[in-house]
Amino acid sequence: MPHQPIMFQKPFKAEGSQGFRQNLSELLANQQSGLTLQQPFYNSPEIYRLEVENLLMNRWHCVGHVSSIPKAGDYFLFEFDSESVIVVRGENGEVHAHANVCRHRGSRICSKQSGHANGGVLVCPYHAWVYKLDGSLRNARMMPPEFDSGSHGLKPVNVEVAEGLIFLNLSDEPREFSVVAEMLSATAGKFGWGDAKVIHEERYSIDANWKLALENQVECYHCGPSHPEFSRVHSQGRPNTEQITEQTRAARGEHGIDISPIDKWAERETRGEEAVFVERHGMFNNALTASDGGQPVAPLMGNASGYDGLFTIMYVGQLNHFLAYSDYGAIFRYTPRSVTQTDFHVTWLVRGDAKEGVDFDKEKVTWLWRITAAADKRIVEENQIGVNSRFYTPGPYADPIEAKTQRFIDWYLSEMSLAAQA
Ligand code: FES
Ligand SMILES: [Fe+2]
């Protein structure tokens, strides 16, 4: 019997006589609906650059929770692509965000991921220009008398706080944020996230393109094989998820958290606004929360009157996902760092007045999502290695269990078509 011919991926030429945009237009025209993306979308540095500038730069990123910088001068860094931003608590309790770029000769000012600005100032390590927490330049050594310190403050980055969550936008033309604030008020607000506290953070550096990480994040086809611990208490990986969710709702009832359907995610009409999406699901196997055994691991959050065995998933833009269980919350943030490098940041929240060792055991609260996130890093990295192969060709998504991944890809392709024409 003759062998099947091997169909190798046609090499993608970023440069050449036709130019990048035309080659990209041809690639987009060749992309088949219902199949995974062609290889260059996952590993071409030129395509990645276009994505960052045209699809991602004007989005809002959830960079953390206010409880992680309680005192004036507390700061942490947010790193996106090759950019770095200092997020710092100001003298009057406000949250500032400044580009981590000195206005003298451009040095990075803070290099530690988090810390405290001693004496209430940020000092550039190179020639010791001194900035106040609000970003204004306080002192620049040995500069001539005509030097105007008033026009040499740190460049501000757009910052918003909603339900205790800090959001940044690195663009001059940020998308409308009010839709995010409204959605979070109806969801995270009901769980008291504004008064919650961070108990743990993990950063997973994933050697894969950001879209592979996102494709994985929004489907649960992989949950059964890859996340046995998760699948014992969540129903998403099962074929009749909707039915299970309805049964759970009927059996347990709501507990005063009324969430009207919100779906403005990956839709064209949301252009100009940030994209938001909310789902509410039932837990599985009589679990009340996402823990080993499904039993509560922390005090109830917000105005919940009991553990109802339901949980809420919120999406902001493409890169920020949030999970609200009755007793704890989890913030998931993906930040592209290069074409095949993505940071995956997970933050755990509990009730603000809960005491460690008395009301909760940190290991128990974080156990399930530490295991699950580490598995996700591993499977997404294996995915990238396979996609880089000359034997890779686009494969079919399963329907309907990978429907949200398809929806994400459809959104991506429509945005890239616009970018290719721009
Ligand atoms: S580069 Fe910052 S003080 Fe010179
Ligand atoms: Fe996963």
TrEMBL record:
Residues 60-168 form the Rieske domain. Its cofactor is Fe cation. Pfam families: Rieske, Ring_hydroxyl_A. One of its GO terms (molecular function) is dioxygenase activity. InterPro entries: Rieske_2Fe-2S, Rieske_2Fe-2S_sf, Ring_hydroxy_dOase_asu_C_dom, Rng_hydr_dOase-A. It comes from the Bacteria. Keywords: 2Fe-2S, Dioxygenase, Iron, Iron-sulfur, Metal-binding, Oxidoreductase. CDD domains: Rieske_RO_Alpha_N (cd03469). Belongs to the bacterial ring-hydroxylating dioxygenase alpha subunit family. This is Aromatic ring-hydroxylating dioxygenase subunit alpha. It comes from Paraburkholderia podalyriae. The lineage of its organism: Bacteria, Pseudomonadati, Pseudomonadota, Betaproteobacteria, Burkholderiales.
